[in-house]
Write a structure and sequence with these properties.
Length: 374
């Protein structure tokens, strides 16, 4: 699976797509309200099939709702169902049930099998209208889903998920394997001792956001100055995201040139995000790993994940002596077994490398399904 992103040409006609997104937002909120009401009345979860058939019936009577394809309406129901299942499973860990969303801020709708058609060239038919997109690359493989996204700046993108059956063999060009420890200050510590710092512009860009944000909140609500400030803020966010993604691509290419197999600890990223809030999402490790997996696939390299419960920081990489506990603040420790001094991150990276290498040897490695936004 891979995800391709195309920009749609600005056109008056695009207002119909924006209208569809708004309708999708309205339907979404309607579904949430139904869920809540159903639970209040029956004390039970409203099941997805029931909701879908009910909404499908209602849609026939509501003209505005018909501006979204029936497939997209099904997708909304399924998404809400997924969110509820996640909530049932992890509510003790603080996952909240899906809630209402502002229609103005609602971002997208997704079509699966029907409701769109590629007409060749850069034209695509969505519903009964034809739109043009900036065809930056060929769409190869079988199209699974088509999503229309609206950015905060009001631009429209088409995101296409295709099934590409290619699964290249691993090519051993460097015959090197490396482990990586991920941190908040040093982005990655490599088992060969090298460090990859988070680039300076991450920090600088935070200041730019702060400035744009306070500028926005100072303006009078509903004024055109505020709207201008809002756009400016959205542009700043977008700009930073682009720079970061660019850096990630370069780093992914650099690392896959240097190594054949790259080992990481699986991190419970969703959990981390919930616990630490913005910090992790700012660093966007999962974003980077997606890109790295994508590049690795292309180049025939391999990304390996080791179990997150392996005590990579507490085990000595020289003699595998395991400490009982190691405080987070300790950056360096002397091994009681072999007397070697272990730097925390580097030691962890070495252990990740060792475990990862043994997994490759045993053939336990599964290639993960990757989807990536380009
Ligand atoms: Zn030791």
């Amino acid at each position: 699976m891979k995800t391709l992103k195309f920009k749609l040409y600005q056109h008056k006609r695009n207002k119909y797509l924006k209208r569809s997104i708004n309708a999708a937002g309205v339907i979404y909120n309607y579904c949430i309200a139904l869920h809540k009401r159903y639970y209040r009345m029956w004390g039970k979860h409203l099941n997805c099939a029931k909701l879908q058939s009910h909404i499908a019936k209602l849609r026939k009577r509501k003209e505005f709702w018909q501006s979204v394809g029936s497939q997209a309406v099904q997708d909304i129901c399924q998404r809400i169902e997924k969110a509820y299942q996640l909530f049932f499973k992890h509510n003790k860990k603080g996952v909240r049930p899906p809630g209402f969303k502002k229609v103005k801020k609602y971002k997208s709708f997704t079509l699966k099998l029907a409701g769109y058609k590629f007409l060749g060239g850069s034209r695509v038919k969505i519903g009964n209208r034809v739109y043009q997109f900036w065809k930056s690359r060929e769409i190869e493989g079988k199209v699974k889903t088509l999503t229309i996204k609206r950015t905060p700046l009001g631009e429209l993108f088409m995101v296409v998920v295709v099934d590409d059956a290619i699964d290249p063999q691993i090519k051993f060009t460097t015959s090197k394997i490396a482990g990586f420890d991920f941190g908040l200050k040093v982005f990655l510590t490599c088992s060969d001792g090298s460090k990859i710092e988070s680039p300076q512009f991450f920090k600088q860009s935070l200041n730019a956001i702060k400035r744009a944000c306070s500028n926005h909140s100072k303006k009078l609500k509903g004024s055109s100055n505020r709207e201008r400030a809002r756009k400016n803020l959205a542009r700043t966010h977008e700009d930073i995201a682009n720079r970061r993604t660019d850096w990630f691509w370069k780093l992914a290419h650099d690392l896959t040139n240097r190594f054949d197999v790259l080992c990481f600890e699986t991190l419970n990223l969703k959990g981390m995000k919930r616990l630490w809030g913005r910090k992790v999402s700012d660093l966007a490790l999962s974003n980077f790993l997606n890109i790295l997996e994508w590049v690795s696939r292309k180049k025939g390299k391999q990304v390996v994940y080791i179990d997150q419960w392996y005590p990579s920081s507490k085990t000595c990489s020289c003699c595998s002596y395991a400490l009982k506990n190691l405080d987070l603040s300790v950056r360096e420790w002397r091994c009681p077994g072999c007397q070697s001094v272990n730097g925390r991150d580097e030691n962890a990276a070495k252990n990740i490398q060792t475990v990862g290498a043994s997994m490759v040897g045993l053939g336990e490695v599964r290639r993960s399904e990757t989807a990536i936004a380009i």
